[in-house]
Amino acid sequence: MGAIDQYLDLWRDHGALLESKSPSVLNALRGAAAESLKVNPLPGPKDENYRHTDLEKILAPDFGVNLARVPIDVNPSESFRCDVPQLTTSLFLVINDSFAETDASRDRLPEGVDVMSLAAYARQNPEFIERHYGALADMKNPIVALNTLLCQDGVVIRVHAGVKVESTVQLVNIFHNGAPLLSARRILIVMEEDSDAKVLVCDHTQTPDVDFCALQVVEIFAGRGSRLDFYDLEESTLKTSRLNTLYLRQEEDSHVLLDSMTLFNGVTRNEFYTRFAGPHASLRMLGLGIEDSERRLDTYSRISHDVPDCNADELFKYVVDDSAMGAFAGLIYVAEGAVRTEAYQSNRNLVGSSEARMHSKPQLEIYNDDVKCSHGTAIGQLDEMQLFYMMTRGIPEAEARLILKQAFMSDVIDGISLQPLRDRLKLMVERRFAGEKSACASCPLPCP
Amino acid sequence: MLSVRDLHAEIDGKEILRGINLDVKAGEVHAIMGPNGSGKSTLSMVLAGNPAYTVTSGEVTFRGKDLLAMTPDVRSHEGLFLGFQYPVEIPGVSMVNFMRAAVNAKRKYFGEPPMGASEFLKLMRQKRAVVELDNKLASRSVNEGFSGGEKKRNEIFQMAVLEPKLSILDETDSGLDVDALRIVAEGVNKMRTPENAAIVITHYQRLLDYIRPDVIHVLYKGRIVYTGGPELALEIEKNGYDWIKAEVDAKDSIKGEA
User: Fold this and answer.
1) Residue in B71, B92, B158 closest to A391 by CB
2) Would you list the domain boundaries of chain A?
3) Within an 8 Å CB–CB cutoff, is residue A404 touching chain B?
4) For B92, which of A385, A393, A407 is closest by C-beta distance?
5) pLDDT given for residue B257 in this prediction
6) Which pLDDT tens digit goes with each residue over B187-232?
7) Measured between alpha carbons, how far is A256 from A247 in angstroms, rounded to an integer?
8) Can you tell me the ipTM of this complex?
9) Of the given ranges (A136-145, A384-393, B165-174), which has the lowest mean pLDDT?
10) Cβ–Cβ gap B92/A397 under 8 Å
11) Residues A176-232: pLDDT tens digits?
12) Which of A386, A389, A403 to probe the B interface (max B CBs under 10 A)?
C-alpha cells in the first residue's frame, strides 16, 4: 500500500464528514482530486524532478487530519508574541489549517482589501472562489491533488482594482498540536487591475517534538498593472515537513517579487510555477536557504514566458552545513512567440562540510532567437584568502566565517524592497548563522 | 621584538623558505628586497600565519612569545600586522562593519568592553585622515571597487586603527603612482615610534626614499643572503640583483661539488 492510499481511504470512509464541514465550492473539486491521485502514481526518486525529495516517505506516517474541524485550544495572541514592533503589518493567523482572525488586523486595512478565511469567503462569495480556486493549480501535481482532496480552509487575499495597500499583510501559519498532524491549507491571492500590495507569510511550528506535515498550495493572480511583493519565510522545526506549491499567473504590465526564505525547517519541497500571460510584465524571484543538521530543502521552479517582452530575474542562494541537503532545479521556458524575453537565473551555494550535499540544475529552454537569457550555478566553500585576511585583522575564525556567510546572503536580502523587513531579515539571518535556536521568541518580526 | 631562527616553510610540498634568520628590534625599520620568486611574500604570509603554508622547522619569537603557536587573529592582537600585497576583496561586508569587528575583537582579547558607537566613528575619522582615505569608501564593501591606490591606502588605514607593534608591509608600493606612494609612506612614517618596528618588503629602491630603513636584507632562494645598511639599496638600484645571485650561485655550486 502506498502512502497516498491512506488518504484515499480516509476520503472514502469520511468524505461525507469532511464535506459537511466545508463549503461546496471546495467540495466540488475533491472528486477530480481523488481520481488524479488514483491515476497518477506519486513520483519517486527516479522521476527527474523529484530526485531529491521522497514524497512517499514524507506522506507515509499516520498523520492526523482535522476533518471534523475540532477547534484546537490555542489562544493566538497568547501563543504568538514577537517583540520588535517596527514594520506596520496587518496580522492574520492560520492555526494548523484554520483561519483565526485577530482583532486589530482588520482596522488597518484600507477599503477594497479583503483578507479572510477561505471557507468563509467561499460561503459569502462562491462565484468568486469558483472562478479562482484551482484555476491555476495543476491537478496532475500530486501535492495539488492531495491538498485539493483534503483542504477545508486557508486564506483569501483579494485586492480590488486600483487599491494600494500601504501596510504589509502578514500571514502567520502556526503548527500547534499534541499529536502528529497534516494540514492542507490554501492561499489564494487575487490582485485586481492596478492594485498594489505586499504579503508576508511566516511558517512557525510551536510544538517542536511533534511531527507535522504542511501541504500548502498558493495560487496568485496578478492582474493587469498590478504589483505584488510576496515573501514566504519558513521557521519551523526538524520534525516539520513542508510541501508547498505556488502557481502565479501574470497579466500585462504586472510586477511581482517572489521571495522564498528558509531559515529553519525539517524537510521542505518548494515548487514555483509561474506564467507570463501578458506582455511587459516582470518577475523577480529570490530565495535563500540555510540548512544545517539533517535538514533538507528542495526547490523546483518553472518560469514560463508565453508572451513577448517579459522580464524574469531569479537568484537562489543556499548555505548547506553538517549533513544537510540542498537542491535547486530551475527551468526557464521561452515559447516560440515570446520574443524580446529577458530571463536570468542564478543559483549560488556554499557547502560547509564534507557530509553536506548540494544539487543544482539550472535549465533554459528557448524556442526563439530574439531573447536575452543566462543561467548559472556555483557550488563552493568559503574563500580561504578572505578568511585569512579577516583573521590577520584580529577577527577570530568563527566570527569571520559568520560574517562571510552573512555577506554571502546579502544580495538576496538586499533584494527585499521593504526597508524594515530587510533590516529584520538581516538580523534574523545573522542570528541564524550565529546558531540561535528556532523559536518564535527569536523571531524579530512584529507580531502582537 | 622579532627573532626568526632557521625558518623553513613550504607550500604544496615545495620548499620556499630555506633557513631564514632575522632579528628586528623595537624602533627599527628593516627592508627586505630580492628578485621575483625569492620568497619575500612567503615570509610575510608565514609570519602572519596563513594556513596554506607549512612551517617545517625553525622558531619565531615575537615579543617573547612563540609566534608560530598563535592563530592569525591572536598574532594580530599581540601586535603583528600584515599589509597585503594584494588586499582581499570581501563583497557584502562593509568597511565599517569589518573594522568594528576587528577593533572589538582586539578589545575582547584584552578583556575590554566593545567600543561605543561615537568613539568608534571618531577613531575611524581620525585614522582615515592619516592616509587621506575618502569617507565614501567606509560604506562600501571591503576593497570592492577600490582602485589600486585606495586598496593600499586602506591597508595603511587599518594599520593605523590597529596600532601594531610590528608591521610587515608586503610590496605596499607596487601599483602606486608617486602621489599615492608619498601618502602611503607618510602614513607609515607618522606611526613610527621608538616602541614599534616595521618590515618593508619591496622590489624597488623607490619606497625607501620615503621610508628610511635601518637595515636592508636581500632574500634569494629562500634565504637572507646579504644584509647591509641603506647604501645596499642604492647599489641594488644601480647594479640589479645579478651580482648577488652570481655570488650565491657560485657558493652553492662549490658546496654541491664538495
Assistant:
1) B71
2) 3-383
3) yes
4) A407
5) 54
6) 788 888 999 999 999 877 788 888 888 999 999 999 999 899 988 8
7) 12
8) 0.95
9) B165-174
10) no
11) 888 999 999 999 999 999 999 999 998 988 888 999 999 999 999 999 999 999 999
12) A389
- The residue ranking higher by pLDDT, A367 or B184, is A367
Average pLDDT, chain A: 90
What Å distances lie between residue A435 and A266, B93, B134, CA to CA? 16, 20, 36
Nearest CB to B76; choose among A383, A394, A397: A394
State whether A385 and B88 contact (CB < 8 Å). yes
The whole-number pLDDT of residue A87 equals: 62
Tens of pLDDT, residue by residue over A93-102, are 888 888 886 6
Interface test with B, best of A392, A401, A409 (most B CBs within 10 A): A392
What's residue A100's pLDDT? 83
Task: Give residue-wise pLDDT tens across range A118-148.
Answer: 999 999 999 999 999 999 999 999 999 999 9
* Partner-chain contact A393 B92, CB within 8 Å: no
Among A26-35, A75-84, A411-420, B191-200, name the one with the lowest average pLDDT. A75-84
Q: Which residues contact B233 (CB under 8 A, 6 or more apart)?
A: B31, B33, B205, B208, B213, B216
Chain A closest CA to B227's CA: distance in Å?
A: 28
- Domains belonging to chain B, first-starting first, are 2-241 (3.40.50.300)
B82-to-A104, A255, A338, A390, B156 alpha-carbon distances in Å: 58, 49, 55, 11, 10
Q: CB within 8 A of B1, min separation 6: which ones?
A: B24, B25, B26, B28, B62, B63, B165, B166, B197
Mean of the pLDDT values across residues A416-437? 82
A199 touches A228 (CB < 8 A): yes
Cell 636581500 found at? B218
CA distance A438 to A237: 7
Task: Encode burial over A75-87: b for 16+ CB neighbours within 10 A, e otherwise.
Answer: ebeeebebeeeeb
Q: Does A397 touch chain B (CB under 8 A)?
A: yes
Please report residues of B whose CB lies closer than 8 A to that of A406: 92-93
On chain B, the residues whose CB falls within 8 A of the CB of A384 are 51-52
Q: Which helix (H) or strand (E) holds B45?
A: helix B40-48
Strand-pair partners of A230:
A199, A258
**Partner residue opposite A403 with nearest CB, options B52, B84, B93:** B93
B73 interaction partners in chain A (CB closer than 8 Å): 391-397
Cell, residue A354: 564534507
Please, which pLDDT band fits residue A150 given cuts at 50, 70 and 90? very high
pTM across the whole model: 0.86
Q: Do A394 and B102 touch (CB under 8 A)?
A: yes
**Hey, are the CB atoms on A391 and B73 less than 8 Å from each other?**
yes
How far is it, in rounded angstroms, from Cα A260 to Cα A231?
6
Sign of CA pseudo-dihedral A9, A13, A14, A20: positive
Q: Does B101 touch chain A (CB under 8 A)?
A: yes
Confirm or reject contact between B139 and chain A (CB < 8 A): no
